[in-house]
Amino acid sequence: MNFNLSEEQAMIKDSVARFVADDYNFDQRRQNVAMDKGFNPDNWQTFAALGWLSIPFPEALGGFGGNAVDTMVIMEEFGKGLVAEPYVATVLLFGGLLAHSGDGELQQQLIAKIIDGSLQGSFAYLERQSRFELSDVKTSAVAEGDNYRLNGEKTVVFNGSAADKIIISVRTSGEQYDENGISLFIVDADADGLNHTDYRLMDGQRAANISLNNVVVSKLQLIGELDQGFSLIQSVVTETTRAICAEAVGIMQKLTETTVEYSKTREQFGTAIGKFQALQHRMVDMFIAGEQTRSLLYRAVCSANANSDDSEKDLLALKVMVGRAGTLIGGEAIQLHGGMGMTDELDVGHYVKRLMMINTTFGDADYNQARFSKLLNR
């Protein structure tokens, strides 16, 4: 199978890699996440100017018309740089829901603003009791004439503190765990009755818990079809899961390379620790785990582009491997760096924390292992 990138994909990869090398070192990254929004708005405008925000959107909506490989290329390089700007929240989740919704006028209006960098968005789907189940929705929307009244709470809303608009999953019919009966509404972040509590996640990025107290929205703010939002959520979450797995692969490569380089300079008993065979074996294990994950990533991306019947199975296997390999590589990177690996001043721990967040996003390794087993036993 040919895994060579096209000329355009190679250009995208080089563009992101140059940005990370020139404008996104670890000290700059720490300054960015310390800003009020949790990222640097100037960087976001750079993303827009370079065309990265347009990559996943179809040409009919003013986008680049990229596929899963294009997104993979961007996210892998973002992983190597530990980029904190909300590409996942605004472009892949919020923008992805708009792009798949079929609402032509709303799509044209809002996606154009995402592409030019003037609109920040987020997707509120998690609730306190739902854990990893996307269909576990208690937040309600009750029809009142031409409007709906929203009540409930959403947790861990990525980019929720900086978003201008938020797409919220609500229950318009059915029981708490039913897939049918879930609808999606787009709400202004400053709408009456919408309150949010902002906080910083362990990887430095910002999120928010959002409460909805009689928030009134019109029927025109419905995204997709009434009661049929779950399939839309599934499609976008599937695409985004592949993307964050690509980010994880970039992080794994960075951690392995950083650890190998450190082992060549750190001396113990008068010699570089990289010459100790036992430590060499551990670094080889890191490399192998990263390459196995990369192979599964390529398989999952190729399955998606080919609309293969195995695409769901391949993605679940990839997500499981990201969790397992991420734990191994992260743990070894910290241990082989010794006491320095535990310090906040060294970038290693920050990469490991991001791997941990990726593992728990859209289901951790154990959860997806159970889904994989259930799929095989159908």
Description:
- The chain is an alpha+beta fold and 378 residues long.
- The chain has three domains: 114 residues, Butyryl-Coa Dehydrogenase, subunit A, domain 1 (Orthogonal Bundle), CATH 1.10.540.10; 107 residues, Butyryl-CoA Dehydrogenase, subunit A, domain 2 (Beta Barrel); 146 residues, Butyryl-CoA Dehydrogenase, subunit A, domain 3.
- Helix content is 51%, strand content 16%.
- It is built from eleven helices and ten strands.
- The strands form three sheets. It has a four-stranded mixed beta sheet, covered by helices on one side. The chain has a four-stranded antiparallel beta sheet with strand order 2-3-7-6, with no helix packed on it.
- It is globular and about 80 Å long.
- The mean pLDDT is 94.
- One of its GO terms (molecular function) is acyl-CoA dehydrogenase activity.
- Keywords: FAD, Flavoprotein, Oxidoreductase.
- Its cofactor is FAD.
- Belongs to the acyl-CoA dehydrogenase family.
Main sheet properties = 4 strands, mixed
CATH class category label of the largest domain: Mainly Alpha
The whole-angstrom Rg is 21 Å
Class based on secondary structure composition and strand pairing? alpha+beta
Mean pLDDT: 94
- Order of strands in the sheet with most strands: 1-4-5-8
Shape: globular
CATH architecture of the largest domain: Up-down Bundle
Sequence stretches where pLDDT stays below 50 over 5 or more residues: none
Q: Quote the beta fraction.
A: 15-25%
**What does the oligomeric state look like here?**
single chain
Number of domains: 3
In CATH, the homologous superfamily of the largest domain goes by the name Butyryl-CoA Dehydrogenase, subunit A, domain 3
Distance between the termini: 29 Å
Topology order in helix (H) and strand (E) letters: HHHHHHEEEEEEEEHEEHHHH
CATH topology of the largest domain: Butyryl-CoA Dehydrogenase, subunit A, domain 3
**Percentage of residues in helical conformation:** 40-55%
Number of strands: 10
